[in-house]
Amino acid sequence: MAVTDEAILKIKGMITRGELGPGDRLPPEKELSEHLGLSRSSMREAVKALEVIRVLDVRRGDGTYVTSLEPRLLLEAISFVVDLHDDDSVLELFAVRRILEPEATALATARANPALITRLGAQIDSVDGSTSVEGLVEHDLEFHRTIADAAGNRYLASLIDSLSSSTVRARIWRGLTQENAVERTLAEHRGIVTALERGDAELARALTLVHVSGVEAWLREWTETTTA
């Protein structure tokens, strides 16, 4: 194992054992390296790596702190990598969404309450035939974000949000090139809300699967046509 990797694992161990918690300040570099039996250079590299993935926050002139470790913060590193995808890999992103989002919707069904149904309904009512493609996609993002949040799993919601945000370009292109994109999207959203309101998890899961798969199928067909 590389020395830097060992240093990362040892700092991670201090966090998982509770020796360091969210917001805590790390001991000075010299003290910490001696405590863990590592060189100061390897410790320095480990801190840099953990700063990149938002586990540590290095404050110049103040010290190094453990971040809040909130899911949305930690998943920013994944979001950054996802943003570097090429057009073909968008299909893989949709495939992951197709796996995760129906399950998130099913989980949200058990937690659905009148406030959630009203909120989702208001989001749908805010869109009509005069809404721009960008506005439709923004609505779609917010709609799915609301349901994912309602599932009650912050890590799942953050992951879905990262993946969903990274498919915006494809969804805008679909809205520009496919007829009745607004009407189709809103109809599918209404069906999902109705299933949530009825407490029918299986129907909510199935409708979400069809909804996400529709964009994926369009993108796959468009990609095959343009590369033929």
TrEMBL record:
Single GO MF descriptor: DNA-binding transcription factor activity
Pfam family, one: GntR
PROSITE patterns: HTH_GNTR
Annotated ranges, domain HTH gntR-type: 1-69
UniProt xrefs under CDD domains: WHTH_GntR (cd07377)
KW Repressor (keyword) present: no
Listed InterPro entries: GntR_C (IPR011711), TF_FadR/GntR_C (IPR008920), Tscrpt_reg_HTH_GntR (IPR000524), WH-like_DNA-bd_sf (IPR036388), WH_DNA-bd_sf (IPR036390)
Record's keyword terms, sorted: DNA-binding, Transcription, Transcription regulation
PANTHER family (alphabetical): TRANSCRIPTIONAL REGULATOR, GNTR FAMILY, UXU OPERON TRANSCRIPTIONAL REGULATOR
Protein name listed in UniProt: FadR family transcriptional regulator
Organism encoding this protein: Labedella populi
Lineage: Bacteria, Bacillati, Actinomycetota, Actinomycetes, Micrococcales
